[in-house]
Amino acid sequence: MSVQTSVQMNDPAQPMTSATSLLEIKNLRKWFPVQRGFFKRTVGYVKAVDGVSLVIQPGETLGVVGESGSGKTTLGRCVLRLYELTDGEIWLRDGERMLPVHELEGKELRAFRRNAQMIFQDPYSSLNPRMNVLETVGEPLLVNNVAKGKELEDRVTEVILQVGLRVEHLRRFPHSFSGGQRQRIGIARALVVRPKLVVADEPVSALDVSIQAQILNLLKDLQAEYRLTYIFITHAMSVVRYMADRIAVMYAGKLVEVADKESLLTHPRHPYTEALLAAVPRTTSGRNVKRVVSVGEVPDLANLPSGCVFHPRCKYAVERCKVEEPELRELDGQLVKCHLAEQLTLRGIGPSPNGAGKG
Amino acid sequence: MTTTPTNDKLIEVRDLRTYFYLYEGVVKAVDGVSFEIRQGRSLGVIGESGCGKSVTAQSIMRIAPEPPAKHVGGEILLHLGRDGNGEVVDMLKLDPHGDRIRALRWKEIAMIFQEPMTSFSPLFTIGNQIGEAIQLHLPGLSKKQVRERTIDLLGRVGIPQPKRLIDAYPHQLSGGMRQRAMIAMALSCNPRLLIADEPTTALDVTIEAQILELIATLQQEFNMALMYISHDLAVVSEMSDEIMVMYLGSVMEQAETGEIFNNPLHPYTQALWRSIPRIEGGQDRLVPISGTLPSPYNLPKGCPFYTRCEHRMPGICDAARPPMIEVSPNHKVSCFLYKQE
């Protein structure tokens, strides 16, 4: 476990002040145009990510949670420049200086990819069925001119063993592996270039419950060994509780709350975080426990509500929330985007339970 | 409860065996499963993919694809009549395409599925499809009455503006709304048993919470029994009075919900509990279940969990199937570590 949980966030609107941060995201926007008609006229935008700022420290795991359509996957892909940004800046530490990821082109962009890699959700569709393990895992080394020939095979073998596969798997093709093994191949492929930053987008969602634990533990062990920094994107609150040091909650393309894990889970400051936590089923609550269930559904991203994006579903909303969009501001070390954050006492998840059961 | 406790059996499954005869070999998807569900009660079924939980449900409905599936043994006894003194029908003896089973499906037992988009036809409005189910099972209603009943049902499952959305096509609804429409269809003929096969797995967590609450409320309102299938421990625990843990086609353990979480007996249940991250936290490190699933074509001869069990006893566990024994009242386990009281 890293010790970054207590590190205070900088004011995201200000230029970089922290001398230790690994990644800084400033006011990131990704708007997808909505095109209509014969001439593909742009009639509007889907604001998938709209003004996100984050600072990530080396060695920490930042969990990004939210419902589908909240923009968490788009955020992860923007950080790796898999999508072109609409606006905003991304800075990655490279020794003493910060590298402007948002401006990189060509050779420099490829060099950046050596430092930042992605683990995908679906181990069935993210591997090329015509490439064996050696080719799949060795490809990043080849295209980045890191290694070839015997050296490549040695490095692939080394990483394959680390993720819990065996040497005899090298010449096999993806179809002969189980879901958990395929996800190990995906992890090996991401780690073979020794990145500093890994974006893991729902890495265990497609796996069976008993396999999830193996992959989560593997990710933790690899992090400890190589001091990796994770952006861990998931919709499963229980998984993020196990993995993350800090948690960022997204709703409709915006960050609504960022805090260290324990504070966010036990004392959420944003009503959406409270609703999200209340919705999570628990083994300890048993039958017929009435939960606070939030009403309504995620808004249309091409046609967002005015003011605070969450106000139509928020049970605390007042007149001000309908007209004025709140800022993401700091409150007792937590970042929260809510006008009423000081006044509300919200319910989180209690500290670790003793005993379970009904009634 | 509408009857005395001794007489409120709704469905009894005895030694059900559903095998799939495939080119590669025989998969014993369900291999000797027994349980019963009483009226108005709910049974949760939990297990990993391939443990036979869905096939068990499909066998009850007789919608497992035959062939390749074949019910090679056992009986599924459905007790008809609200007072429990009616006729008893063995679902396995009925023709899966016959009139008798069509009269029982939907009216006695209804089922909702994981992906509501694939459960509805995209060519007809939801009102049309729910209305069809009502007309088939409750003949004699006029078109207007059917429409009114459909609107009433859509309103009861929380679909806003049911008068307008009755004429919507499935693709015009969101995932949560489609699942609500699916539930409305399942409830259209007041079934006595609702089988829910992972109905919220494809939904977001806040929508999932809404649907779980809806199912629990409607279960009380309609006084239905519920069989709730999921791989998600927490969801099952919120929905069920009793929980049955399955592994590779067999029942490993069955007990009341609180009991099975506080006092899991079977090594598989214990291992499963330790391997799953919980929202309540307090887990320094997850403990994965060691080993891998054996090939479904070639299951171990004795206990199916033998190859991965940390308490395995060579010569005992791999020689014969452990019988299901009742360790304490309503707590049954299939493991040689335990002796009958």
Please give a quick description of this structure.
Chain A is an alpha/beta fold and 359 residues long.
Q: What report would you give on this structure?
A:
The complex is a heterodimer of chains A (359) and B (341). Chain A is α/β, with parallel strands linked by helices and 359 residues long. Helices cover 28% and strands 23% of the residues of chain A. Chain A is built from ten helices and twelve strands. In chain A, the strands form two sheets. Chain A has an eight-stranded mixed beta sheet, with helices on both faces. A four-stranded antiparallel beta sheet of chain A has the order 2-1-4-5. In chain A, strand 1 and strand 2 (41-56) form a beta hairpin. Chain A is globular and about 65 Å long. The model of chain A is unreliable at 1-17 and 352-359 (pLDDT under 50). With 341 residues, chain B is an alpha/beta fold. Chain B contains eleven helices and twelve strands. Chain B has helices at 53-61, 99-104, 116-119, 126-137, 143-156, 162-165, 175-186, 205-222, 233-239, 257-262, 267-275; strands spanning 9-22, 25-38, 42-46, 69-79, 88-90, 109-112, 193-197, 225-230, 242-247, 250-256, 324-328, 331-334. In chain B, strand 4 and strand 5 (88-90) form a beta hairpin. In chain B, helix 4 (126-137) packs parallel to helix 7 (175-186) and helix 7 (175-186) runs parallel beside helix 8 (205-222). The radius of gyration of chain B is 21 Å and the shape is globular. Chain B starts with 8 loop residues before the first strand and ends in a 7-residue tail after the last strand. Chains A and B meet through helix 6, helix 7 and helix 9 of A and helix 8, helix 9, helix 10 and helix 11 of B.
